[in-house]
Amino acid sequence: MKDKIWLECLQLIPNKYHAEINKFRFWERRQSSLIGKLLLKKALNFFSVDKTLLDIKYTTYKKPYLEDDFSFSISHSGEFVVCAFTPNKEPIGVDIEKIERKIDLNNFSSVLTKREKNSITQSREPITTFYNIWTIKEAVSKADGRGLNLPLNTIDTCQNYISLGTKKWYYKPISVEDNYKCNITTTCKDFEVKLKLTTISELLE
Questions:
Q1: Which of 6, 44, 62, 196 is most buried as measured by Cβ atoms within 10 A of its Cβ?
Q2: Nearest-5° angle of CA 111, CA 115, CA 116?
Q3: DSSP secondary-structure letter at 91?
Q4: Is 49 exposed, middle or buried (0-12, 13-18, 19+ CB in 10 A)?
Q5: How many helices (H) and strands (E) are present in the chain, helices listed first?
Q6: What pLDDT, in 10s, does the model give residues 87-110?
Q7: Average pLDDT over the chain, rounded to whole?
Q8: 3-class state of residue 201 by DSSP
Q9: Are 86 and 70 spatial neighbours (Cβ–Cβ below 8 Å)?
Q10: How many CB atoms lie within 10 A of CB 145?
């Protein structure tokens, strides 16, 4: 993103977020944080939600939310920023990850269930399988609201839903690019996903 476009985008969000965004050390992280807020702003306008970015509140686990019939979740990795949203209070979570082929899967053994480890071991593409499992876990932890406070090894992805307490989480993969994995989750069993690829230029409109 060129400096001129960066400044134009920055002016589209409340000043209170400027310092929050600029505190990130790496340019890519600052950029993805800004784009995430612009995507959310676009979604609020699309559904004519009577709330703005200034109305965002946070739970005790630091999950952002709006006191309205609107739920959202934001994730970023590599060249993509994803904003998932729904015009109701149904909790939603999304996670996207760029697949790194040199990753050492042994470092993630403690967050995987026995069945997930077997699934990865038996897969023809163990790295890809791991990232699919990982994005499901991350999406569920975001939707649940506890984030990293929820032990990821309590989330078993080896069936078509995930049980956490009294809730069941259903998930669907989102196709982005071959070198990315993305999953979205909610407590609604038969949910529909509509995708829209948005450019920086469209966010400036």
A1: 44
A2: 45
A3: -
A4: middle
A5: 6, 8
A6: 998 999 999 999 999 999 999 999
A7: 94
A8: helix
A9: yes
A10: 16
CB distance 76 to 36 below 8 Å: yes
pTM equals 0.94
Q: How far apart are CA 115 and CA 183, in angstroms?
A: 19
Q: How many CA atoms lie within 13 A of 193 on its CB side?
A: 20
Count CA within 13 A, CB hemisphere, residue 103.
17
* Residue 81: both structure tokens together: 């920023």
The two tokens of residue 171 are 């998930």
Structure token pair of residue 29: 């992280």
Question: Model confidence over 38-76: pLDDT tens digits?
Answer: 999 999 999 999 999 999 999 999 999 998 889 999 999
Determine the Cα–Cα distance for residues 191 and 93; give it in Å rounded to an integer.
13
Tell me the one-letter amino acid at 116.
E
Tokens representing 110? 């403690």
- Burial state string for 172-195 with b = 16 or more CB within 10 A and e = fewer than 16: eebebeeebbbbbbbbeeeeeeee
The rounded distance, in Å, linking the Cα atoms of 143 and 45 is 22
